[in-house]
Structure prediction request, 250 residues.
Amino acid sequence: MATDRLSVIFAALADPTRRAILARLAEGDATVSELAEPFAISLPAISRHLKVLEHAGLISRSRSAQWRSSSLNPEPLREATAWMERYRQFWDANFDRLDAHLRRMRQAQATPTDNDKTPTDNDKQ
Amino acid sequence: MATDRLSVIFAALADPTRRAILARLAEGDATVSELAEPFAISLPAISRHLKVLEHAGLISRSRSAQWRSSSLNPEPLREATAWMERYRQFWDANFDRLDAHLRRMRQAQATPTDNDKTPTDNDKQ
DNA sequence: TCGTTAATTAACTTATCGGTTAAACGTAGA
DNA sequence: TCTACGTTTAACCGATAAGTTAATTAACGA
Prediction:
């Protein structure tokens, strides 16, 4: 696997078990066995998934006695989203669609719309 | 690798060459050799990267004569972003930050801020 | 101190990834 | 029809991912 930061993040997310672990951690910190409980795989396998998530910076871990608690660290998700953000113009007719969506979520007042699409740079990796 | 749709998408993105190809396609359609040009890897390798991207739904391809043109298909990025979106509350103090960001991109007028965070469901995979 | 519990490490297996070179395919043009 | 070009397929290689079971580590508690 590629070792650049973004690749490590996306690779960590490319597994349903790891995504489910993140979903669980969104509800609050948990120990390894708590995280393992819903799955039909061994504890060492979970332990390795956690290592992958930790290596990607998606979780951080602490120990108290014999328990190791994991907690969600969403910063890498922000990075990954930031990378995708530049393609948003291709799937949203314009940025106002998202704007409108956010407003709907907040049950807030109407918003003016305009049309200047912001051109986006490319990265070469 | 896991075969569920989201895993296939994230896995496709977990490679810098493939992300660079997507970046190139954001500027417009391109043939295989045009896409290969910036890279120090063989044409068959590029061909396989394209197959991965196509399988993930990130590009679609057409042929005219002996040239195969690829074009960006951003729908899967929308799906991936949608999955991450639920974690946004963990890295943004509130959704207004994004709102503000969008406004800045549009060089539009100031926006009022409020504080209702929208709670988010979890998926179990 | 001894047993129990929580978790990790070690050793191994199987499958897949990302690259290579060589061969084959499909179309256009001389 | 033959050749050249753009691309894919085939066969292979070395590295690594994701799982297993068994052994080890680390801390607590009787």
User: Anything to note?
Assistant: The longest strand of chain A covers residues 59-64. The helical segments of chain A are 5-13, 16-25, 32-36, 43-55, 75-85, 88-91, 96-105.
